[in-house]
ABC transporter
Amino acid sequence: MMNVFGASIPQLPLANWVDSLVNWLTQFTGFFNVIINFVSGINGAFQWVFDLLPQWLFIVLVMAWTWFLSRKAPRYWLLVLELVGLALIWNLDYWQDMTRTLSLVLTSSVIALVIGIPLGILMAKSNVAQTIIQPILDFMQTMPAFVYLIPAVAFFGIGTVPGVISSLIFAMPPVVRMTNLGIRQVPSDLIEAADSYGSTSWQKLVKVQLPLARKTIMSGVNQTLMLALSMVVTASMIGAMGLGTDVYFAVGRNEAGSGFTAGLAVVIIAIILDRITQLVNKPEH
């Protein structure tokens, strides 16, 4: 490799280093088996609940939850969308694939929130932690999603678990960033008032900072859900079953109709999840 001055510059074998690192990590099968069992357990619990509920009862529960969140100013258009949209998914025989997609999205989102919110709190409390974590989040959010599939398959094989892990990595940065932002935006005079009353750091966090940062944090939760859902088609390439599989197969077979209907089901689920999380963020009761 030559630079502008004609001198020879040795090329770094970065790809070989990454391959060596991945190969070295694959020997820790026990550790990865623990993660596989943990993720499979959460995903299986969600799927068990969805399989237990009849389709009509699932639709009624979603509409009832929406009504409860907006009962002071009912969103009738959203209730109609939920009824018509979910009934359409049922009619098109995508119900099982829809519940599998929801299980994958909820599993990756729950794990992302459990990890991401404490990381955001740590970043808000420590400038050193923010300096270290910020570039990692930039890397996670800007790296093409397809790249995550390679180590995910190497570590976890084919199936739902690598799909959850890749979705988790891709979807976690927003909730970390928004938690950090929300806590840092809490007015300093309120923090000083809490200190003057002798509040501990934990009391300030739970009773002052987190409640005041709730709307910002919920915006991060909303973005995390949407990003996790956007990964369903990509995750289908490594064996994660769901609506993404239907879209992926339709593309491979050049079946525009099947691809459109499966994609429409994804859109319906995305709109419902987005609007419900917005209602949780802005309660009207």
User: Anything to note?
Assistant: The radius of gyration is 22 Å. The chain has one domain: 39-281. The domain at 39-281 is CATH 1.10.3720.10 (MetI-like fold). The chain is about 80% helix and 0% strand.
